[in-house]
Amino acid sequence: CSMADMASAKQVDDCWDALEKIGVAGKTIPITYMNSTAAIKSFTGKNGGAVCTSSNATRAMKWAFEKGEKILFLPDQHLGRNTAVLNLGLSLDDCVIWNPWKPNGGLSESEIKSAKVILWRGHCSVHGRFSLENITAMRAKLPGVSILVHPECQHEVVANADVVGSTEMIIKTIENSPVGSKWAIGTELNLVARLANRFADREIHFLDKTVCYCSTMNRIDLPHLVWAMESLVEGRLVNQISVDTEVAKYAKVALERMLALP
Ligand code: SF4
Could you report the predicted ipTM of this complex, rounded to two decimals? Predict the structure, then answer.
């Protein structure tokens, strides 16, 4: 996932060191989106935080605010901001962006101290493409259309959509929608195409007019899956992923905290 690559372990460690120096690390709880490397999940577990998905991000952030005063949200700024503002009642001004390419994240000490949510400057290159212009154009082209988007989209897109929800909620929304209803969906194209096939009695469109697949997710294709499985049958393990024991230990802690979320 290209978003996961936007937060390296070294960059996140440097950020935490800076927060420690300013004296706020002790009251900051890291929350990392599932789309992050094992090293970032491990950092999160080691520092009292949890992993979240788009379905449980609200619960994870509420839990974090019971444990601390601030959240460091990794690596997707949009999911963090949208959850904080739409579901936790925080304001846009309560959120600051940590830019890992700038000293001190590009923030002043007082900005860091007064922020409630420090958002890592990462994003999904697929969901980040949807724009307010897409929504305006779709509403003009298709009167009566409902705009359904994922919270990885930019805040102005989410703020102007009719329904915002995780992948699971997008599927449920279409499942429960009336026959003949019109939808423009802002999420990964493969899912939209599957929903359009499955619910041919609804009118389902992709929100962006330009087709944009997730190039990383599309590497998991049928020929490679068959190759991996046939290799296993032949007794060969291909593309094995191994995670350092220490990293795995704390990443598991962060994952278990997510599974135990109230
Ligand atoms: S759509 Fe692709 S880039 Fe975006 S979060 Fe999913 S895997 Fe990552």
Answer: 0.97
